[in-house]
Specification:
Length: 238
Amino acid sequence: MHRSIALAVRQLYELEVPKPQDIEGCPCCISTEQISALLATPLPEITLDQMRPYARNVLSTVGSEADFRYFWPRMAELMVTAPSFGQFEEPELLLDRLRLADWSSWPDGERRATERYLAALIERLADEPLCPSEVNAWVCAVSQASDDVTPLLDGALVHDTPASAHNLYALYDWSRRKIEKRNTLFGSFWGLQGINSDGSFVNPNVARIVAWFQLPHVSRAVDRAYAAESLTERPLGT
């Protein structure tokens, strides 16, 4: 786990959120036995399989904001430690549930720790090269829960590091045709918050990210990233 994410997860666990006495849920989505197991297991020891039915349906057919706040540290940890990407729950969906839980109105300690966690998910991109779909997924996920994700992108992706350049290239190239032809981003999760009557996305980060790519210093960084990527793809001996 990236050091910034590990620190943020530890800070989430340090919060003293009351444990729920019970969890309401549709029996088709989560059973009484599954709820009992969640409540009987210490928070850091809840397994991926135990947590998945709750996380997949929370604030839809299962649970409330109060129990979401209690389970949030464990869900945040599982999201970044599952054996394979997306095995626990798609980060875009889980962080949209975080938005639905109105995390920005939580008590100061919980809000600051959650803000630090969201920032860490993007900070990682300065250090660890990821495949394009994962870069897009993490940026999209954080955008679901953040008013403006572009300052985080500026801090992580406009850097003179190989990982930063690779991930900037990946993020732009993933949506390049959509950006250049329609001023939008590629992927169904970018429209997760819905669409306005004029066809524009409700998620304000879509327009903000497109505009961010057009800033002179970002545009230059994208050009450098494309140049660096072309060098890494060049066959040996050429």
